[in-house]
Design brief:
Blueprint (H helix, E strand, L loop, with lengths): L4 E5 L3 H13 L3 E6 L2 H11 L3 E5 L8 H11 L4 E5 L4 H7 L6 E4 L4 H34 L3 E5 L5 E4 L1 H6 L5 H9 L3 H5 L5 H9 L6 E8 L5 E12 L5 E10 L4 H10 L13 E6 L4 E5 L3 H5 L3 H5 L9 H19 L7 E9 L5 E12 L5 E10 L1 H23 L2 E7 L4 E4 L1 H7 L3 H4 L3 E3 H8 L2 H16 L6 E9 L5 E12 L5 E10 L1 H23 L3 E6 L4 E4 L1 H7 L3 H4 L12 H15 L7 E6 L5 E13 L2 E11 L1 H42 L6 H26 L5 E3 H15 L7 E7 L3 E3 H21 L7 E10 L2 E8 L16 H12 L3 E5 L4 E7 L9
Parallel strand pairs: 1-2, 1-3, 3-4, 4-5, 28-30
Antiparallel strand pairs: 6-7, 6-10, 8-9, 9-10, 11-12, 11-15, 13-14, 14-15, 16-17, 16-21, 17-18, 19-20, 20-21, 22-23, 22-26, 24-25, 25-26, 27-29, 30-31, 31-33, 32-33
């Protein structure tokens, strides 16, 4: 950073040397020490100091005050007075030259340095303020648009020449004087009631507001203006003044010429109040003036943006282009090319948040009074929306072009007077030719018809063209279809649409048309005709009763099978409402209607059975299927297909009757087996009364329990609707309680706990399971709790993965260690092992805590018995 240069004007050499030492120690350069005012004035032009320390009392003809006054007028260099006098007289005299500070001798070095720093800062601020004022003055005075500052009450503070000239006043002073005798509303507004409304809107915020208004000129004539103004507020949001722009938009020749010449140069205010007005110094590329609306365009505050170079807000590539073009423009303007002064450019600005803002910029090279070009006046406008619109338009055009290509459409134009076609390239592609084949996109009408129109289409096409030429209808248009020929002789179908264009006298001068290749559509149409014939044959030959109805249930078509069953002709059936058909039983009509409504509501309708009465009065059963037929995703028709299932229904009834008889027979068998087993159980019970020893009684009782176990299964099957499965929860619960009853177990002495999953097993598996449970539970009740001991008996049947797990345990005395469970003389335990093998199960025996049997098995698969 360069050091500030200070000139010391002091006639006392000792004090001067002391001051110099203090200044150099403080970081300043002393350019010279002089003793007189004359020497000081001579030295200034050579050393160009940044500040002068001036003793008031000097040698020579000029004292310090007189010298400082000359310096102020000529050089504008800040002066600090050094004086040993503090008399009021001398101090009052110094005010004439307006010094930056006073230092009364003696002073210390800190005071001197601090005073100099303050003076230099003050001078820098005043210089920047002066430059800002100069910039604003340049913009204010040179603007072709009227600018004003006024009070809210309607008094002008300042106006520019453009406004006074616009309103026909001799000068700005004349305009201010005349208006301020009353106010702006009284003097200028044609409609005086408008300004209060304008002011009310403007005072709501600090934004620009635009209005269209009418002003009186000084001579009484009226002009129409665009009026834009805003409220300027201080840091406390108090209104200081109103700032505004006035643009004459009166449609007069002089105004139109003036606006036409300066439209780009003087666009300081546009209809979009978001435009940014700015002045930029060409050497530093920094803004010297910037309107507050810059924040909305680029995101920086006015203060922050003023500190930046334009290089900070555009890309390097954009900056290089602007710099190169700017110097070329300046050279052209200096060479006399006035068109170079104003230019419209488009560039991308980098917003504070990093996004790119497409911007339209109108720049004007400003020429100062010396003919130099040092600044650029600019107006920037955000054109993001315009770019988006242009992008959408391009996309629409591309889509239209794509649609034309996909739909195989081509444009043409016929000059009626010359009888010459003008085709686009796609039309030539349609004909199988190129531009090079013909040499142009023009072709005579007769040549086109004779060369490319199919003989079948010539008369039709010629008549349509003549009709278009001769029609008086200003909105005439016509559409025809026919065949054309390609250059290779291939024939193709086209849909031709065209309209007429008339001149001011109503005479047709041109025909504008579009041709679309519809060959594929024609092929499809022909295929559809063939397909329709096939469908009609299938429809009529279908043995099912087939009826086509509309969404209101009226018959559209029926097949031969339907006419045969009803005894009515197709002509009599078509047009009838479905409810009017006598073949549908009254009880079933509502079912049909509900099903059709359900289908129309978008629900799937499953096939259903219904009854019909044929022409002979016989009842017939049908299986009805409903199918919706859609057009453009909307149901238009419903196809009813009724398959005759009368014979199948009769067969089903016979099977049902036979099955019912077998069910009754099977139920009776189970009942009789159960009764027979009950008889066996009763016989065993009677036999126990004639046996004296307890061992024989126990054997009979065990046999009786086994018989009861089997009988109980047949009882469950007898009562069940499903003869193949036994519901194990009910079965095991009944079986256990019956055993408790059989062995006369006192209530509460042995507590049974049953934990059975919701399981159903077939009879092949249920019988051995029931016998196993009988044997093990019986064994527990007899031996686990001797001497009337109390305990718990647990019976559990669970589903674990793909297996069933049966657990029977107790907390009794357990089985003796001497007994080998798998090799025992006990008939009951032998039965358990045998029955476990029968169900392909595995048994685990645990006597660590009472007795526990765990048997895992799978359900046996039923095997046919012969």
């Amino acid at each position: 950073m360069s050091k500030n240069v200070i000139l010391v004007v002091e006639d006392d050499s000792i004090e001067a040397m002391d001051i110099k030492k203090i200044l150099e120690t403080g970081g300043y350069n002393v350019s010279e020490i002089v003793a007189t005012g004359e020497e000081a004035l001579k030295n200034i032009s050579q050393s160009k100091p940044d500040l002068i320390l001036m003793d008031i009392v000097l040698k020579g003809d000029k004292n310090g005050i007189e010298t400082a006054e000359i310096i102020k007028k000529k050089y504008k260099i800040p002066v600090i007075y050094l004086t040993a006098h503090s008399e009021n007289f001398n101090l009052e005299k110094t005010k004439i030259s307006d010094p930056y500070a006073y230092l009364i001798k003696p002073f210390d070095s800190n005071d001197l340095i601090r005073t100099i720093d303050i003076a230099l800062d003050k001078n820098e601020i005043e210089r920047e303020l002066e430059d800002s004022k100069e910039n604003f003055k340049n913009l204010f005075e040179n603007s072709p648009i009227g600018i004003f500052h006024s009070s809210t009450e309607g008094k002008f503070y300042m106006v520019n020449n453009a406004l006074s000239n616009m309103l026909g006043y001799d000068s700005t002073e004349d305009l201010i004087t005349q208006v301020n005798k009353t106010n702006i509303s009284e003097k200028l507004y044609v409609d005086r009631t408008k300004r209060p409304n304008f002011i009310s809107d403007v005072l709501k915020d600090d934004k620009w507001h635009s209005f269209k208004n009418s002003f009186y000129k000084k001579d009484g004539s009226i002009i129409t203006v665009d009026l834009s103004f805003r409220a300027v507020k201080d840091e406390n949001f108090n209104i200081e003044y109103l700032e505004g722009f006035v643009k004459d938009i009166t449609r007069e020749t002089e105004a139109e010429i003036a606006l036409s010449k300066s439209e780009s140069r003087y666009r300081l205010i546009s209809e979009n109040t978001g435009d940014v007005i700015w002045i930029m110094d060409i050497d530093s590329w920094k803004f010297t003036y910037l309107s507050p609306s810059a924040y909305h365009l680029i995101g920086y505050s006015q203060k922050n943006l003023m500190q930046k170079s334009i290089r900070d807000i555009i890309t390097i590539h954009t900056y290089e282009n602007i710099s190169r073009n700017l110097h070329q423009r300046i050279d052209l303007l200096k060479a006399g090319d006035e068109s170079a002064q104003v230019m419209v450019t488009y560039l991308n600005i980098i917003h504070k948040d990093g996004r790119i803002v497409p911007t339209e910029v109108v720049t004007t090279l400003l020429i100062d009074e010396n003919g130099e070009i040092n600044e650029i006046l600019g107006v920037s406008r955000d054109i993001t929306e315009r770019k988006e619109s242009e992008k959408k338009i391009r996309e629409i055009m591309q889509k239209n072009e794509f649609a034309m290509a996909v739909s195989k459409m081509a444009n043409w134009e016929l000059d009626v007077e010359k009888c010459i076609f003008t085709f686009n390239p796609r039309f030539y592609m349609m004909l199988g030719i190129t531009f090079d084949d013909v040499g142009s996109y023009e072709m005579e009408l007769d040549y086109f018809i004779q060369t490319y129109a199919h003989p079948d289409f010539i008369d039709k096409l010629t008549d349509a063209v003549i009709q278009g030429m001769e029609s008086d209808d200003p909105y005439f248009q016509i559409q025809i279809e026919g065949k054309l020929k390609r250059s290779n002789g291939e024939v193709f179908w086209v849909n031709t649409w065209f309209r007429g264009e008339k001149d001011a006298n109503g005479v047709t001068i041109k025909l504008h048309g579009v041709n679309q290749d519809i060959t594929k559509r024609k092929i499809i149409e022909e295929s559809l005709i063939v397909s329709e014939d096939k469908y009609k044959t299938l429809f009529e030959a279908d043995p099912n009763y087939t009826v086509l109805i509309d969404t209101n249930h009226y018959i559209i078509d029926v097949n031969t099978a339907t006419t045969d069953i009803t005894g009515l002709s197709k002509e009599k059936l078509i047009g009838k409402h479905l409810n009017d058909l006598d073949i549908i039983l009254e009880d079933d009509k509502l079912i049909h209607i509900d099903k059709i409504i359900d289908l129309l509501d978008g629900n799937k309708v499953k096939p259903f059975e219904a009854r019909l009465m044929d022409k002979n009065g016989n009842l017939r059963w049908v299986n009805v299927r409903l199918t919706s037929i859609e057009k453009e995703n909307v149901i238009s028709f419903i196809l009813i297909i009724a398959s005759d299932i009368t014979e199948l229904k009769q067969y089903e009834n016979e099977i049902q009757d036979s099955l019912h008889e077998k069910e009754i027979l099977l139920q009776e068998i189970h009942h009789r087996v159960k009764n027979n087993m009950q008889i066996i159980s009763s016989l065993l019970s009677i036999q126990t009364r004639y046996v004296d020893d307890q061992e024989s009684i126990n054997v009979l009782k065990e046999s009786q329990n086994r018989v009861k176990s089997l009988a109980m299964i047949h009882e469950k099957l007898y009562k069940s609707k499903n003869f193949n499965k036994i519901y194990l929860i009910d079965y095991i619960e009944s079986l256990v309680w019956d055993l408790f009853y059989s062995y006369a177990i006192e209530k509460g002495r042995i507590k049974p706990i049953l934990d059975i999953d919701d399981i159903k097993l077939n009879i092949e598996t249920s019988v051995p399971c029931g016998l196993i449970i009988t044997e093990l539970v019986s064994n527990c009740l007899k031996y686990a709790f001797p001497d009337q001991n109390e305990g718990v008996l647990m019976v559990s049947l669970k589903i674990i993965d793909d297996y069933y797990e049966l657990t029977i345990s107790d907390n009794g005395v357990g089985i003796s260690e001497d007994i080998d469970f798998f090799n025992t003389d006990s008939l009951g335990l032998q039965l358990v092992n045998s029955l476990t093998d029968q169900i392909d199960g595995e048994i685990v025996f645990d006597r660590s805590n009472g007795t526990k049997f765990t048997i895992t098995f799978k359900e046996l698969i039923y095997k046919d018995r012969y």
